[in-house]
Design brief:
With about 150 residues, the chain is of the alpha/beta class. The protein contains four helices and eight strands, in the order ββββαβαβαββα. The strands form two sheets. The chain has a six-stranded mixed beta sheet, sandwiched between helices.
Length: about 150
């Protein structure tokens, strides 16, 4: 389980230049928010992607009023393990409709990633009532599924 430290690729001050680590263990829109759907026309089974820190903060504050589990996927477009986990996030969103799935690109919302202390990609934060209840670092589909199962009740 080694890790690649991204240091030679420049996105003009992106998170890659801020010391983020992408594990390489071989395991398996501009309005501020984009809903990535699994193809269903209902509101269930979706991953919500935020592109505005202010819209994210409003959403996060509102989520504190519910006891539902929120899974935040901290990701980046250049991150191979993150791309590997994307189908799993969509699958889990379809499977666990009582759980809210959020996708945050660390290059777009660097301040949010810093606020949550994200240093490695992918990082999955499991949140209830605004508090972190669990965390998974790395591309581990089964590990994420187990954590979702554990905390969704």
């Amino acid at each position: 389980m080694g890790a690649n430290i991204s240091n030679g690729y420049d996105f003009g001050g992106s998170a890659m230049n801020k010391g983020l680590v992408v594990p390489s263990d071989g395991s398996s829109a501009n309005n501020g928010r984009v809903i990535v759907s699994n193809g269903s026309s209902s509101n269930t089974g979706r991953v919500i992607s935020f592109h505005s820190s202010s819209k994210w903060k409003i959403h996060f504050e509102a989520s504190k009023l519910t006891s539902n589990l929120m899974v935040i996927d901290f990701t980046a477009s250049w991150c191979g393990p993150c791309r590997y986990m994307e189908p799993a996030m969509n699958e889990f969103a379809a499977m666990y409709t009582d759980v809210e799935f959020i996708k945050i690109d660390v290059d777009e919302l660097e301040d949010v990633a810093q606020e949550f202390g994200v240093l490695v990609l992918p990082t999955f934060m499991l949140i209830k009532k605004g508090k972190e209840v669990d965390k998974l670092v790395g591309a581990n589909k089964e590990g994420l599924r187990k954590k979702i199962e554990k905390h969704r009740a």
